[in-house]
């Protein structure tokens, strides 16, 4: 495989990782707020808290990794996206910063209703704003005149496709999050929380599929070329839908929330890789193609070696983290007091 | 000062970095100090040190959170504010940036494990060992990011062809002449500053009348560490000066107001400069010292600023920053020395005056970090990539930098206030457990 393909495949893996772990985190914030105002807080908060404590920092790194890797492999992205996204990027950064620090602060300070609201709201607002970058990558929103790069915000905001993407981002976040938390609550031997979260998962499942279809149809008008390439690999998307059906059936029949979540993960794996593969060769239409990667072969080699060495270190560490916290029934059910 | 896009982008970058570096310094130093305390606690079976490690980790959870989010900010602001630099230099610095995120990832995973598994293992050494990857990860990520900064000061390992960087030798670019001194000086000063900040907290408690054995031990441990790390920092500072003399003479010349190339150059301490006549008033001149510090020989030749074209000279006010940084550095060596001279005799109470000096050492050490960084960064102006790309040519062309300065300014004020309040409340509401001091059976043999 050529360097540029290795690069984009690895980056896409990390983006997928981010989509999963960040969705759980963002959705948890929303559910936590929602159950607070509907008086069901005691049901789900313990579970959410115990999952997030050791995980929130790791979640953040997935995103940084994706961004740094993107700029590392494709320096042109820094130029175009960097210049065009100063304002929206900065706003997303501020929200991420507030949310990340809030989480650590709230451990030691009493959380107020306002704080809970902000924590829940940012959980929906951040994925919506991050997803906008995917919209922009389809082309048509960045202009370059006399070497000056600008973002056409008015066109972006009035475009049906960009709103479809926002919708799919928000619904997926809630759906992935509820599916995982239902499993985690079950693992924690907390049937009431598991039942509540299962209902959340079922309630968000259909809107997610509806929003995905909306993205399909609006993309057809916005970027016919991309739409054609998507049709070429339609089995991937059918596969994604099939996984959804299996997960849905498992959740409806209360068979196994763990397996249901595995199928949800597969559903998004197929969808995201299908989307990514059909997006190529463009990283940003029409300015950056995947072939415009770094030019020095030595640097390319060094990056790949660094990547392999890094993954050898990361994967066992992640497994250890999951063993100690996610898949440890005693920890999940709150029987180990872990605070320093 | 001309408030154009470049200047605004510089202001925003400086704001983010100065705020981030407070937490980054602690991020590099805390894992080491916590690990040492836990080691002593287990080794000696002394509950005091274990409590220390736990209390410090608690506070560290809050500072690390702010460190992570502001680090995310600067990571992305590099591309948002300096797109042309990232496009040109991205080819050359991709590897260390990439490795830095790996080190950070590694640190993040084990930090989660370390913080939430204090009582998980029956063998206490297992928990201690889980802190090692945190320590390694934080130091490595500091090292990698320093190689990027060093590269901007001493670019090498590539060819410039039609305004594009080609033929990059990643290892050569990473291990450029500036890397060893920069990384060493930064990591050691982060350790020294962290030790001093913790010493400041212990001394503050003692001044407030807390004479628990725990506080005394905390002060003693942090004083030992301060002395060792501050001395190491000073040593590295000397090497960094020699590096400057050899590779970036204009930075050293501006720092020392050394205008004419010459042998037997003298060092100027303090003083006020008349920028027109280059006359220095009120300064203390020490003959031969600059030559000695720069070259190792009192008659060595030191390049003067006049040899550099006017528009390529760094601003001359960096002298004040340099002197203040070096002055605080000396303070950080002298105060622990005084402390140990005084406590040589067993049981002698440390006088209040000395205790106050230790308390002041915490904030001063943080100030020195800031001054050192401003000196280093402003000292390479007008270049962003010394010798290749000027700062003015690489800033974003977006018209909204000004409002972003305000937006992030508000964010940092909020984060600073909130973090301080949370930390204060946390330690007020959780006094040092009294039972630590009642000779409780240590739970580890």
UniProtKB/TrEMBL annotation, chain A:
Entry GO CC: plasma membrane
Transmembrane segments: 12-34, 55-74, 80-105, 117-141, 161-185, 197-219, 231-250, 257-278, 298-321
Keywords: Cell membrane, Membrane, Transmembrane, Transmembrane helix
A Pfam cross-reference name: Cyt_bd_oxida_II
Domain of life: Bacteria
Name of the protein this chain belongs to: Cytochrome D ubiquinol oxidase subunit II
Compartment list: Cell membrane
Annotated membrane topology: Multi-pass membrane protein
Source organism of the structure: Tumebacillus flagellatus
TrEMBL record, chain B:
Taxon lineage: Bacteria, Bacillati, Bacillota, Bacilli, Bacillales
GO biological process, one term: aerobic electron transport chain
GO cellular component: cytochrome complex; plasma membrane
TM ranges: 20-40, 60-81, 93-116, 128-152, 186-207, 219-237, 320-342, 354-375, 395-419
Primary residence: membrane
Mode of membrane association: Multi-pass membrane protein
Localization: Cell membrane
Sorted UniProt keywords: Cell membrane, Electron transport, Heme, Iron, Membrane, Metal-binding, Transmembrane, Transmembrane helix, Transport
Molecular functions per Gene Ontology: electron transfer activity; heme binding; metal ion binding; oxidoreductase activity, acting on diphenols and related substances as donors, oxygen as acceptor
Family from the record: Belongs to the cytochrome ubiquinol oxidase subunit 1 family.
UniProt-recorded name of the protein: Cytochrome D ubiquinol oxidase subunit I
Pfam families: Cyt_bd_oxida_I
């Amino acid at each position: 495989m050529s360097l540029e393909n290795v690069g984009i495949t690895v980056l896409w893996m990390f983006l997928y990782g981010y989509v999963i772990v960040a969705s759980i985190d963002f959705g948890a914030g929303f559910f936590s707020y929602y159950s607070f105002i509907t008086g069901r807080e005691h049901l789900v908060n313990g579970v959410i808290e115990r999952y997030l404590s050791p995980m929130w920092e790791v979640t953040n790194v997935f995103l940084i990794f994706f961004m740094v890797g993107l700029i590392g492999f494709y320096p042109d992205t820094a130029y175009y996206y960097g210049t065009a996204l100063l304002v929206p990027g900065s706003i997303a950064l501020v929200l991420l910063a507030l949310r990340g620090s809030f989480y650590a602060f709230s451990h030691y300070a009493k959380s107020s209703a306002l704080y809970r609201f902000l924590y829940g709201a940012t959980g929906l607002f951040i994925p919506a704003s991050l997803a906008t970058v995917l919209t922009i990558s389809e082309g048509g929103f960045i202009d370059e005149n006399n070497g000056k790069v600008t973002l056409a915000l008015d066109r972006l905001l009035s475009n049906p496709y960009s709103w479809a993407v926002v919708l799919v981002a928000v619904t997926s976040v809630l759906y992935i999050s509820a599916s995982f938390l239902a499993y985690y609550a079950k693992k924690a031997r907390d049937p009431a929380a598991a039942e509540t979260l299962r209902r959340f998962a079922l309630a968000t499942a259909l809107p997610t599929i509806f929003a995905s279809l909306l993205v399909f149809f609006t993309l057809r008008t916005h970027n016919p070329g991309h739409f054609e390439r998507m049709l070429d690999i339609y089995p991937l998307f059918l596969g994604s839908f099939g996984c959804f059906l299996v997960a849905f059936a498992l959740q409806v029949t209360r068979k196994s929330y763990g397996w249901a979540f595995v199928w949800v993960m597969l559903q998004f794996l197929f969808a995201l890789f299908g989307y990514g593969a059909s997006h190529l060769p463009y990283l940003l239409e029409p300015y950056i193609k995947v072939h415009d990667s770094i030019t020095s072969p030595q640097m390319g080699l060094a990056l790949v070696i660094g990547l392999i060495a890094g993954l050898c270190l990361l994967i066992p560490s992640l497994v250890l983290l999951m063993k100690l916290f996610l898949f440890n029934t005693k920890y999940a059910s709150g029987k180990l007091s872990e605070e320093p | 000062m001309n408030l154009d896009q470049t200047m605004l982008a510089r202001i925003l970058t400086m704001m983010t970095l100065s705020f981030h570096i407070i937490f980054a310094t602690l991020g590099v130093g805390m894992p080491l100090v916590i690990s040492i305390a836990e080691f002593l606690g287990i080794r000696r079976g002394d509950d005091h040190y274990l409590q220390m490690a736990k209390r410090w980790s608690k506070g560290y959870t809050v500072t690390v959170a702010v460190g992570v989010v502001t680090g995310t900010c600067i990571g992305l602001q590099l591309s948002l504010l300096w797109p042309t630099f990232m496009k040109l230099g991205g080819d050359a610095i991709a590897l260390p940036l990439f490795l830095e995120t790996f080190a950070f990832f590694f640190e993040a995973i084990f930090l989660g494990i370390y913080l939430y598994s204090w009582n998980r293992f029956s063998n206490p050494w297992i928990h201690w060992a889980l802190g090692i990857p945190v320590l390694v990860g934080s130091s490595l990520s500091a090292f990698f990011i320093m190689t990027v900064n060093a590269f901007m000061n001493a670019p090498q390992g590539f060819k410039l062809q039609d305004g594009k960087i080609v033929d990059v030798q990643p290892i050569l670019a990473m291990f450029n002449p500036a890397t060893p001194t920069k990384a060493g000086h930064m990591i050691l000063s982060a350790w020294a500053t962290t030790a001093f900040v913790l010493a400041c907290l212990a001394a503050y408690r003692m001044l407030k009348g807390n004479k628990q054995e725990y506080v005394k031990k905390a002060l003693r441990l942090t004083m030992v560490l301060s002395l060792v790390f501050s001395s190491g920092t000073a040593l590295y500072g000397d090497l960094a000066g020699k590096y400057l003399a050899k590779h970036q003479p204009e930075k050293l010349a501006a720092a020392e107001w050394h205008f004419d190339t010459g042998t037997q150059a003298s060092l100027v301490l303090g003083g006020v400069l008349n920028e027109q006549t280059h006359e220095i008033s009120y300064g203390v001149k020490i003959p031969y010292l600059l030559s000695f510090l720069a070259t190792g020989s009192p008659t060595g030749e030191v390049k003067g600023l006049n040899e550099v074209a006017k528009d390529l000279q760094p601003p001359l006010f960096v002298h004040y920053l340099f002197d203040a940084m070096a002055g605080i550095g000396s303070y950080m060596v002298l105060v622990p020395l005084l402390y140990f001279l005084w406590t040589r005799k067993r049981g002698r109470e440390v006088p209040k005056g000395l205790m106050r000096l230790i308390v002041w050492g915490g904030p001063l050490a943080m100030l020195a970090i800031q001054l050192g960084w401003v000196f280093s960064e402003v000292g390479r102006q007008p270049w962003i990539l010394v010798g290749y790309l000027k700062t003015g040519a690489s800033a974003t062309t977006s018209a909204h930098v000004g409002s972003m300065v305000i937006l992030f300014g508000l964010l940092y004020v909020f984060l600073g206030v909130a973090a301080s309040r949370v930390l204060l409340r946390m330690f007020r509401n959780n006094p040092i457990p009294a039972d630590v001091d009642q000779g409780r059976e240590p739970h580890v043999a």
